[in-house]
Amino acid sequence: MGRPRNADTDEATRARVLEAAAEAFAAVGQAARLEDIAKAAGIRRSSLLHHFASKDALYAAVIDGAFCELERNLRKVMIAGDDFEARLKAVVGALIAFETEQRALLAVVMRSLLDQEQAGRRILDQSFIPLIDRLEAFVHAGTASTLPKAFPLRAAILQLVVAHMVRSAMGDAGQVLWQGPAHTWKLTQAVLQGAAVKPKARAKHG
């Protein structure tokens, strides 16, 4: 038995609201007005509040949706095949795609984090830290036999991910400074492979 027609309608309306809200938040941050978001979604403000009780709830749903999509994409590539290097390259590709697709929204996220707003703390606890935890566990499992125990793996991952977010938040200026994301995979390789070289081996080539 299929779902009632009004359930399908509610779901479609909710999707339109989230899409309109993502565009609004990306454009003006949390200063976006519910009236404008509702109009863009083709509904009234009162109807919007039927789906999302407040602007904070709507903002949280937009951010959660973006990070949940990234999480799904990362899960797929992390288990696709036995070769760790190929999977790691796919993970880097998924992060670059996320940055490209969510560029404007990531700028809003960065502002929330830097301003230490309540929303930023929530993003940090519920979305960003779990993302870093997952990436650290994945890379650690694939490099346990090569990286020295003292290597600051988490810090290295944070450097790469945060650099992506800053580049994205800076828009065109970020693209000029970093010259696009093409170097990211090479940088990832250089960090992990460089750390895996034993000190004596480095001295021989020094």
Task: Please render the helix and strand layout as text.
Layout (H helix, E strand, L loop, with lengths): L4 H24 L5 H8 L3 H7 L3 H24 L5 H18 L1 H12 L3 H26 L9 H17 L2 H7 L5 H13 L2 H7 L1
Helix pairs in contact: 1-2, 1-4, 1-6, 4-5, 4-7, 5-8, 6-7, 6-8, 7-8, 8-9
Walkthrough of the structure:
With 206 residues, the protein is mainly alpha-helical. It has eleven helices and no strands. It starts with a helix and ends with a helix. Residues 1-5 and 199-206 have low confidence and may be disordered.
Strand element count? 0
Largest sheet: none
Sequence stretches where pLDDT stays below 50 over 5 or more residues: 1-5, 199-206
Give the helix proportion (percent range): over 70%
Strand content: under 5%
How big is the Rg? 20 Å
- Helical/strand content category: mainly alpha
**Pattern of helices and strands:** HHHHHHHHHHH
* Mean pLDDT score: 84
What oligomeric state do the depicted chains represent? single chain
What is the number of helical segments per DSSP (H or I, 4+ residues)?
11
